[in-house]
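S1.2 Input.
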Amino acid sequence: MTPGRTDLLEFSIDTGSSPPTKQRPYRVSKAEGDVMEAELQQYLSLGHIRPSTSPWASPVLMIRKPDCGIRFCIDYRRLNAITVKDCYPMPLIDAILDVLGNAKLFSTMDMTSGYWNVQMAKNSVEKTAFTYKYGLYEWLVMPFGLCNAVPAFESLMENVLVDLKWRTCLVYLDDCVVFSHDFPTHLIRLKQVLERFRMAGFKLKMKKCKWGRDQVAFLGHIVTPSGILPNPEKVKAVINVKRPHDLHTVRAFLGLTSYFRRYIPGYAGISAPIERLKQLKGAAFVWSDDWEPAFLQLKRRLIEPPILIYPDFSKRFKLYVDSSKLAVGACLMQTVGGRDRVVAYASKLLVGSEKNWIRKVDGTSEIECWGIVWATRKFRCYLDRQEFDLYTDHKALTWVFNENNRTNLLHDSDPDEVDHVLTNDLNPGDDGQVQVREPSLLMRDLMNEADLDDGNSVQVRESGTLVDGNSGMIPAPGLLEVREHQSVVDLPDSVPLSEHGALRHPAAPSVRVSEEVVEPLVSSPVDEFGLDMLRFVEEQKRTPP
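S1.3 Output.
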């Protein structure tokens, strides 16, 4: 599908007074050359590139995909190094997800070739020139790989949706989600957003758009009315990672798991052995049995993550904090339906001078005290000027945190970060573990017993593929769970893994239905346009004229 074209932005590259950069083309294999030639012919036919006589030249770089495919890229590193950087801020993903708290319906939209909707400024076209063995070409639309492309495109999207963002929709680059509490409102909001896209000249990739759903994938998470959880497809990538064999793969693995650390209690403590590997500089890298338990435990924690609820600022927060000689951990919770539910987990590894507290006479108290200060800072966006309950397993701190008994450590901290209205309570537990009184809401809590009664049973194939009655086949090797809120495979406490650390699938896993009472999330049939007309009619009947 041909991308749209907007006249709201022309992308320019400011290199100041720097002279042109140029590099010779990289040598490629025959297979890479065939892909390169096919890509170039496609770009020429779409009018995205043209032959060039530019003094600038960046080489084409062919990247191998995980599925053994080949991706066409351009190495703009030298050009980016002399480009004046655009400092337009990117929205925080956690802040985006928190906005979806009262929503019941979601629609996601994906733009067709988002960057290619933006034209290059005439004075910057020559700077995009790239070279390969058949010649020199330059871009007429904004290409991938330029350092300012991301902030420029985010700025464009936010200007298009300037008065709708945060209230009607959320946008992160070319991903947009429209949310609402009821269906009539949802139709109105969809019309507003689609009208803005039409006026801007954007086109949507209909195969990737989801309309009027009660669950959607957005920014690596599954968004539901009850809360958020990791996208199974993203978690699958973590589960199937092989053991690191050098510092680069160590950093890659920690980067993948860190993205989901808000779902993993005690993440810093679990990952501490692997984190220490990053300090090996120049030493030979040899994988040790000391790191294996941490590697496997991080994977197992992501197999069945808790569903994190959305924060409700009309309710009181509960903050559970605990510290150990390795790390501090915190759990922010709220009471929903008479049970404590997790809003987010947080943890931090002790480094540098922080470790010296362990050797002091009163070191345990200082670590526990500092852990509370750190936790209130970490969750400041939720706790600032809010009344909340603080739970600790260190009895001395129930005295320290009285108003007249604050330690120097607390007084040395920023008053805005610790001057909260709180009550403290002793919650005994093992050192280094955040103790919560109620289990968190898990993915199984979204299940409906009625779904199984209707024949929507789940089958697990030997390959790990899940099959259910409505959704069809869900390819999920290495991740035994269902994303359509119907049922979930019951995994044993110790999940067997292969020699590379990937999951082995149990021979006969059992499927069980949660006994907890949760508001049903039943998908309704939709028409060919993706709109649920049955629900719309029912909403109209309940809506006063």
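S1.4 Remarks. The chain has three domains: 6-214, 230-303, 317-426.
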